Amino acid sequence: MNTGGSCWPETVAEARALQEALRSRLVVGGAPDLDSVGLVAGADVSFSRVANRVYAAVVVLTYPGLAEVDVATAEGDATFPYVPGFLVYREGPVLERAFAALSRMPDVVLFDGHGLAHPRRLGIASHFGILLDRPTVGVAKSRLVGEFEDPGPEPGDTAPLIDRGEPVGCVLRTKRGVRPVFVSVGHRIGLEQAVDLALSCCRGYRLPEPTRLAHLRSNACRKSNGG
Questions:
Q1: Does residue 6 register a pLDDT over 80?
Q2: pTM of the predicted model, to two decimals?
Q3: Percent residues over pLDDT 90 in the chain
Q4: What is the DSSP string of 72-123?
Q5: DSSP states of 12-68 as a string?
Q6: Residue 182 forms beta bridges with which residues?
Q7: How far apart are CA 127 and CA 225, in angstroms?
């Protein structure tokens, strides 16, 4: 999968300028009907606990059956400092290499992170959606911005995520008795469709299967390298 070999900023000022430039290219809505999706991918990153290393994994599954058809991993040094709201620049270069190593191109990608639910409305799911020119969805384990009320207790129950008076995502209960996840549009998909996709990819766990498996693979990659 060719990602075009992006140039990644080295300073916060450069990163902020790139976010502002990419934001103008973001497309909300317009994705194909889920019936036309044949492959869905999950992407996640793990950081070394003993060194400045990043381990990325992308897992491609059939949809809606969710059978694994391709996996790619990559590792490398983190070259950007840890700055809240700019984590994509710390994770992105290594994650981009993992995408480039795929032999099967997914129709849509779920990221363990945010899309529009970001201070500048451009989280990792939105950034990579533009980079890959693919529909993308952010499915995060924790809130970055916004206010919400807890959704109902049943799988599929939702509540809006509102930031500065603007709806930026949806708080989704994926399993009874567990904390909800935070779903937001990445690129080329609408929020209702993003929520439907995330929920349809759940198989009895809190996280949708694509990002759950990517999380396991990135952690396994980290541990096998002593991280």
A1: no
A2: 0.94
A3: 89
A4: EEEEEE--S---TT-THHHHHHHHHHHHHT-SS--SEEEESS-SSSSTTS--
A5: HHHHHHHHHHHHTT--BS-PPPGGG--EEEEEEEEE-SSSSEEEEEEEEEETTT--E
A6: 140, 171
A7: 28
